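Lab meeting, item 3. Inverse folding demo.
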């Protein structure tokens, strides 16, 4: 067990509180549904990293996390996970991580979520934020919208909310981080983007830890305030089998990106994380045809 400093404890506590707030928000939406059946509830499963170590990127492992998955009448699958892990990167993997080539020890804490709605008119969404510590210390993450059936008005409202959040902290954040998302969430073998964008950032260390932490917190709050509005706008609308089929095909694209290109998937598997938690982002049903 390592001794955490004040910044590490503050970040870990924030991600846990955000997780609790997001669980409550999503369960409230389940309660509001008029669809048949019982409203979904999150099932939590704790995991210990010493039981899951085996990635080829880390050794001297410690920490763990909590995996929460809900399957309900609004959300076919909603996964919201938190974790805190630490140890040492193996030399080859350390060369790929900011500040780890000089000293392989690391600490990482964060939250990650992916939501796959039942109704294909309701957009899927991804959000994750994290703090990493090597010889350097930084934040990373973002939030992006992934509708199977894009809606220009919905996309504009989402980007407006994200931009407002960014602009409260720095005028350069939205231009830089939305461009980063546009580049990051590109699926080369399909020659298209995974979704309609949002923001993505990494290695955020302005020299003012409190300011960077405040920005990262507001990214989480932005999701918490914005996403339920998008869900409520469409969760009661009827949809066709054709639209459902389009959703399932889109989920295939989503799965391909996460398995082939996503950095978080690679980091989790390389550092011996819980495989089920890492692959929580995969949809419950998809199709390729």
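The presenter then showed the designed sequence:
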């Amino acid at each position: 067990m390592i001794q955490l400093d004040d910044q590490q404890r503050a970040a870990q506590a924030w991600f846990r509180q955000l997780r609790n707030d997001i669980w409550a928000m999503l369960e409230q939406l389940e309660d509001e549904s008029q669809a048949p059946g019982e409203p979904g509830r999150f099932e939590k499963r704790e995991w210990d990293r010493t039981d899951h170590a085996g990635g080829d990127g880390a050794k001297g492992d410690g920490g763990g996390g909590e995996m929460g998955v809900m399957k309900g009448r609004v959300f076919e699958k909603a996964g919201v996970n938190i974790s805190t892990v630490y140890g040492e990167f193996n030399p080859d993997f350390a060369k790929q991580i900011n500040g780890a080539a000089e000293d392989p020890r690391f600490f990482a804490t964060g939250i990650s979520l992916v939501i796959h709605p039942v109704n294909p008119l309701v957009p899927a969404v991804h959000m994750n934020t994290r703090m990493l510590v090597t010889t350097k210390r930084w934040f990373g993450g973002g939030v992006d919208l992934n509708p199977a059936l894009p809606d220009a008005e919905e996309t504009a409202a989402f980007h407006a909310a994200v931009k407002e959040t960014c602009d409260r902290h720095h005028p350069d954040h939205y231009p830089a981080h939305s461009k980063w998302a546009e580049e990051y969430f590109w699926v080369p073998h399909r020659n298209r983007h995974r979704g309609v964008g949002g923001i993505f950032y990494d290695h955020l260390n302005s020299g003012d830890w409190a300011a960077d932490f405040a920005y990262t917190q507001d990214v989480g709050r932005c999701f918490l305030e914005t996403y339920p509005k998008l869900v409520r706008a469409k969760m009661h609308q009827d949809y066709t089998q054709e639209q459902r089929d389009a959703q399932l095909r889109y989920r295939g694209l989503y799965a391909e990106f996460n398995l082939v290109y996503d950095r978080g998937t690679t980091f989790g598997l390389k550092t011996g994380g819980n495989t089920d938690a890492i692959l929580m982002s995969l949809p419950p049903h998809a199709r390729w045809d």
